[in-house]
Write a structure and sequence with these properties.
Rossmann fold, 3-stranded parallel sheet, 2 domains, 19% strand, 7-stranded parallel sheet, 10 helices, single chain, alpha/beta
Amino acid sequence: MVGFGVDAYDGRDKILELEPDVITLDLEMPRMDGLTFLKLLKKHHSAPVIVVSSLTQAGSAKALESLSEGAIDAIGKPDGNRTMAEVGRLLIRQIKAAATSKKQFKPVAKEPVVVKPKDFNQFNLGLGRIIAIGSSTGGVEALRYLLPRLPAGLPPIVVVQHIPPNFSRLMSENLNTICQFEVHEAIDGEELKPNTCYIAPGDYHLSLIPKGMGYSIRLNQSPPVHHCRPSVEVMMLSVARNAKRKAVGVMLTGMGQDGARGLLEMRNAGARTLAQNEESCVVYGMPKAAIEIGAVERIESLEAMPAAIMEELLKPI
């Protein structure tokens, strides 16, 4: 059964009447804005919420805030780059994923406690080391938990999160204020540097190409992979080809199977590979797909993941 509310008050009545399994929420509504409604809704209803927002600066900021208020995902409205049909297909996939999702995972520790082993020395990690992270549904909040708990002085980190254009830039800016290292949206052609995290821009695939003893970034808009652009698969396959055993790959919460084959190629090339466990995932699709094909050598909760990454990074290669 499908219901429709013309504003927040009508929506409230429909939710009480129909008891939906999934709620889609427009952030721009008459009488009460969607973000305010979400905050009230989450006090009384546990159904997963997908927010729909404009891709403007203000709309993107509200969409990202909604994720911290309990929404499990956010998608952009149709614009000059995406048609109604394209957004509709994405929304259908998101609704199906949300229907199987868990209540948003809330780690016990609220304040970031940076994981830094006693023997950690940023100079003993070696040239060419890299950390590659992939995530989707529930991933924005997972990244907000994970990245601030990693120490300064790490090798470059590359992140592909399924996220619309402009959302990725604002997410990068937010992460940059809470992490021990620089975080910014990746730029085509830039050389990767230690102590920096690079976020794939929405609607662009990110891959690595060799440059000297390290790597540079290549962005492109080739066709989506597993319905995704950026695709975790594209990024991880390039890491497998170029970094081999010098990489650590991490698969976080997300729907579908994007990245599973890429993480398997990383493991086959000698990289350390980790995945988030089912209990701490909002949607277990991507980690599950990677685990099922043998791509993962270590499964950890989100809370344990920062320490696990450091342990794998510091193992001899």
